[in-house]
Design goal:
Blueprint: H1 5-24, E1 28-35, H2 54-62, E2 64-66, E3 69-70, E4 73-74, H3 80-89, H4 123-129, E5 133-137, H5 145-148, E6 153-154, H6 168-184, E7 191-200, H7 208-213, H8 253-256, H9 267-297, E8 304-310, H10 329-332, E9 336-339, E10 347-349, E11 353-354, H11 358-366, H12 380-383, E12 393-398, E13 405-411, E14 414-421, E15 426-433, H13 448-454, H14 472-488
Parallel strand pairs: 1-7, 1-8, 2-10, 3-11, 4-12, 5-6, 5-7
Antiparallel strand pairs: 2-9, 8-9, 12-13, 13-14, 14-15
Helix pairs in contact: 6-9
Length: 502
Amino acid sequence: MKLPFRLMASLMGLLLLVSSGLAADRPNILFIIADDQSPYDFKFYNPDSKLQTPVLDRLAAEGMVFDAAYHMGSWSGAVCTPSRHMVMSGRTVWHIPSKQNRKENPNENSKELVPPNLANFTMGAVFNRAGYDTMRTCKQGNSYAAANKQFTVVHDATKRGGTDQSGSPWHAKQVLEYLDQREKSADSDPFLIYFGFSHPHDTRDGTPELLAKYGATNHADPKTLPAANAKQPPMPENWLPKHPFENGHLAVRDEVNVSGVWKNRDEQTIRNEVGREFACSENIDIQIGKVLEKLEAMGELDNTYIFYTADHGIAIGRHGLQGKQNLYEHTWRVPFLVKGPGIKPGSRVPGNIYLLDILATMCDLTGVEPPKSNEGTSFKPVLFGEQETVRDVLYGVYCGGEKPGMRCVKKGDWKLIKYDVPSAGVHETQLFNLAENPHEFLPQHHEPEVAKVSGIQPTAEQTNLADDPRYAAQRKELESLLQAEMKRLDDPFTLWDQKGQK
């Protein structure tokens, strides 16, 4: 029977009222993501860090800190790109598209592995359909452009300068203005705000005040070294003057052409660059504080889940590296905090999560149906204290340079990294017990001239254990796990010593 138009319109209006009423009871989401930030920068991971982030320290004290959060990896030198595709889509690294028309992921030719309409099932689109108001501000480029456009309100721009207009305050301003508009219009719909920053990615141009605090300068002259300053942060514990071997991408831009660093790994350069990084990171902390104050004034803070993370870590002198094209913990791992209703203050867990688990978790926390394309695992049970991890084994890849490149696997305290660089004749294996050797010290870190600069003298057991016969069983187990994970995740490559995988 055909319903009269007026009756149909009344029923539709009633359904909208009911659905909006249900949506209004749902929690809000504030998702905050920095660009290029190592967990070791923060005091809640590294108590000796000189970085001052009182707002994030408070979030850590009031929420949950994850000690084992990772970005899975990259098939691109622009590690940001696959990382942000995984965040948006909830899919694993070999099941996502690359930047438009790049085809960097060999699996993109398969519609079964990489759905052509995936953008319609990414974060913004999913929450729009669920009745959420969605807003986004972040950097432009090296991101998932088709997914970014799905947010209802979008203010994207790359802001890496040292002023309010050219730096991190610009992103905070977009969020604050959006919240002002909600407040003025008495908007009661739940919101999902994607609050992204362009810093502390280089060029790390800090504000004059914060640069002075960390004794740093926005150095831009390749013919001179930056001035030394006692206020600069100390050298990273696992600094090296160069990486011990060709890892497959040592000539990438981030290793040789970052303004202020270039190929230099000397103490003056690295301490100055860490100071610049800290100046930019503290500015991010200040901007987050402004947004949290606004949410509190609006009465929205207590019903909001706040996530804080980065798209990946960064080296800045660690292991003789400068960029993010590696699988050491300082780069493969990310900072990760969550605060919100039902989360025990001051709690800490391993988690064993990937950034690609975020979409599933947001859906689980809000009662939103996750898309069928999602491959992530909700860590809501971890947030609510029901378990400490969501998986036992973690897989990582970097092959943005020569293929097959690097692979790693982690289980418990043990981590294996393998390097396959045929043109350089490099077939290297590293094995670390992260409980005993959290900084992944290598034999080169034991050399007196290195220890003199870093101020750290590793113990005998703090080294690469891959060829130590006492740990042959651990190596064999992890190599089997790595091969199994590569097969499970549709890794299209095979390492030199793997048999029968493809």
